[in-house]
Amino acid sequence: MVYVPEVLVRMRLGGKSNRNLKEILQKSREDYQILRRHGRGGPPGTGSLVALSALVWKNLSKLPQFIRR
């Protein structure tokens, strides 16, 4: 890896998966399944706490998008 000190991509806020609560819940469900499938749900026996906390953090980080609307 190499640090590149310039902006390579600019993305607009929002998107299809952030339009309403139904879309957010659907995307969260898909994200959760992907996290579990790839072993990001924590060690065996710990349940899904790590995957769930990752989803909570991801969705909380999007709150400013809704506040600006």
**Strand percentage, roughly?**
under 5%
User: How many domains is the backbone divided into?
Assistant: 1
Query: Could you describe the largest sheet, including whether it forms a barrel?
Result: none
Instruction: Give the proportion of residues in helices.
Output: 40-55%
Structural class: mainly alpha
What is the element string, with H for helices and E for strands?
Answer: HHH
Gap from first CA to last CA: 36 Å
Look at the structure and give the mean pLDDT.
76
Q: Count of DSSP helices?
A: 3
* Gross geometry: extended
Oligomer: single chain
Uncertain segments are none
Radius of gyration: 15 Å
Give the total of beta strands.
0
Would you mind describing this structure in some detail?
The chain is mostly helical and 69 residues long. The protein has one domain. The protein is 51% helix and 0% strand. The chain is built from three helices and no strands. It has helices spanning 21-37, 49-61, 63-67. The protein is extended, with a radius of gyration of 15 Å. The termini are far apart.
